[in-house]
Amino acid sequence: ENGILLCDSIKPGLVKKINRLPTPIAGLDNLSVFLRGCEELGLKGSQLFDPGDLQDTSTRPTANRKLKNVLITIYWLGRAANGCTSYNGPTLDLKEFEGLLSQMRKVCKVT
């Protein structure tokens, strides 16, 4: 929700400053910085979640759809990292992650 974990886990040095204040505005700042970093790594706007997707997830059907949007961005970021020869950090098991996305789609249809 505050974007700190996302900023901490993207390519080292890409996010210069993380806003650690416990305010909603700080969280939106961090999410915006993370998404800009994703674009710098080659993701397209259509592959990115909206910062509002991590805000106000109190209603279940809407929350599931919003979290699915975030997972889709993580998936594309993982694919970009897996395809980058200069990247030597942790990688995303795409097959396993695709299974998780499939489960989320089923949950979103049920709720």
TrEMBL record:
Record's GO cellular component terms: stress fiber
Domain of life (superkingdom): Eukaryota
Which PROSITE patterns did the record assign?
CH (PS50021)
What is a GO molecular function of this protein?
myosin II head/neck binding
- InterPro entries (UniProt xref): CH_dom (IPR001715), CH_dom_sf (IPR036872)
Residue limits of the Calponin-homology (CH) domain? 1-82
GO biological process assignments = positive regulation of stress fiber assembly; regulation of focal adhesion assembly
The identity of this protein, by name, is: Calponin-homology (CH) domain-containing protein
Please report the organism this UniProt entry assigns to the protein: Seriola lalandi dorsalis
Traced from the root, the source organism's taxonomic lineage reads: Eukaryota, Metazoa, Chordata, Craniata, Vertebrata
